[in-house]
């Protein structure tokens, strides 16, 4: 009886002492020399955010950009202009994006991406319920990456600095808040032509009377959207079938086909909600007809189309790139995973009709000249290189991140408390 009471008391002491033995977030900022820029910007311009982090009652993970990360902001779209124009609101949104809900030490990350909500909720920048997501992964059991907008990958260079509110990981480039569907699709202009998304993007602007199609506005302004976007080679191979569809409203029309690529309910649907075994998942599209998601040979399929690149984060949801155009008239098609490219479900027209230089609908783009992005100095992290569905693309080549944190102090405290517990037990 006595022992139980003493044990409970001591356990509560241990847990409190462990908590108290951990540094505060401000302690971490001042003890890590590579965080002086982050510390400065929070302290000088965003003291409210600093206070919110310090007083958070729910566990959080801070992806703390290193000094080197702040030094190279100029090379990145969105964050470059925000910092060079000293746009206080945009920088606030960028910093909010670096606070992840929940405690995510390296040991909790998986070899496949998980998508965690962040504190980026300002609807000027994002329109995703529960906060914009950031993807986290541990590759080869030791390389930590965080993926943000524009497929930008930020490596973790110092992992697992425990603090009172959760965990800090130091990352070597800033996270980029995801952009709109058009801006994200245009980034694929840096991919080889057949893999660009300009044809599907152009198709969303197509209208019968010269005004902006309601679909373009819908993709831009609806929260929690999931878009399955066929790439140019997919659009081109069935170009004649697509251009022969009626532009007027109604079933079997062009808008009917586009809507079959859009999910509004229950999203955004990241690949983490797709099956990874022999079960299938039916999702209701905007067109009303369901699509079927399945998994085979390490790839996700939508009906018979393979997902080539999954989980491109959008300001208002997520996009997955397909190797084929879906058709609401062919819902029962099954994939053949042994084929590198799935057989189109729409007619490809005359034999040899595929012509790589004839992407349909690109002339419907409001700005026919697609703007590229400034490449990062380390290169290679943007756009449509084709992130494998489940394994993630190759790392951008940084060393193995370091383990860190107040583990030693905490262990010492536990040792002292155990000694105290033994002494108290004998006294009682
Ligand atoms: C934050 O700024 C205040 C003055 O505004 C200063 O007293 C304090 O030391 C600074 N803290 C850090 C961590 O830089
Ligand atoms: C600071 O960051 C640089 C790279 O940005 C790295 O080479 C260096 O080892 C880091 N220093 C510490 C103390 O982590
Ligand atoms: C959202 O961002 C805009 C633009 O920077 C800013 O004016 C507004 O105050 C922000 N809203 C909130 C709730 O922070
Ligand atoms: C153009 O067509 C769209 C539907 O495609 C319709 O919503 C819009 O009102 C039309 N505009 C004009 C000026 O007719
Ligand atoms: C998409 O939204 C942005 C920002 O609100 C706006 O500038 C742009 O014109 C919109 N595009 C369409 C097609 O609605
Ligand atoms: C965010 O999404 C909601 C619901 O779809 C929509 O009503 C609203 O206009 C969107 N906000 C912005 C800024 O696009
Ligand atoms: C088709 O008509 C429906 C209402 O009947 C309307 O909500 C939708 O925006 C229209 N779509 C197009 C592409 O005109
Ligand atoms: C497939 O995976 C789901 C989710 O993990 C699980 O609930 C289900 O039982 C699995 N089904 C089979 C047939 O293994
Ligand atoms: C492909 O399209 C281009 C541009 O329209 C045209 O010049 C070329 O002759 C076509 N090639 C074939 C093999 O049809």
UniProtKB/TrEMBL annotation:
<dbReference type="InterPro" id="IPR000782">
    <property type="entry name" value="FAS1_domain"/>
</dbReference>
<feature type="domain" description="FAS1">
    <location>
        <begin position="184"/>
        <end position="326"/>
    </location>
</feature>
<dbReference type="InterPro" id="IPR036378">
    <property type="entry name" value="FAS1_dom_sf"/>
</dbReference>
<keyword id="KW-0732">Signal</keyword>
<dbReference type="GO" id="GO:0016236">
    <property type="term" value="P:macroautophagy"/>
</dbReference>
<feature type="signal peptide">
    <location>
        <begin position="1"/>
        <end position="20"/>
    </location>
</feature>
<feature type="transmembrane region" description="Helical">
    <location>
        <begin position="410"/>
        <end position="427"/>
    </location>
</feature>
<keyword id="KW-1133">Transmembrane helix</keyword>
<feature type="domain" description="FAS1">
    <location>
        <begin position="22"/>
        <end position="175"/>
    </location>
</feature>
<dbReference type="InterPro" id="IPR050904">
    <property type="entry name" value="Adhesion/Biosynth-related"/>
</dbReference>
<keyword id="KW-0812">Transmembrane</keyword>
<keyword id="KW-0472">Membrane</keyword>
<protein>
    <recommendedName>
        <fullName>FAS1 domain-containing protein</fullName>
    </recommendedName>
</protein>
<dbReference type="Pfam" id="PF02469">
    <property type="entry name" value="Fasciclin"/>
</dbReference>
<dbReference type="GO" id="GO:0000329">
    <property type="term" value="C:fungal-type vacuole membrane"/>
</dbReference>
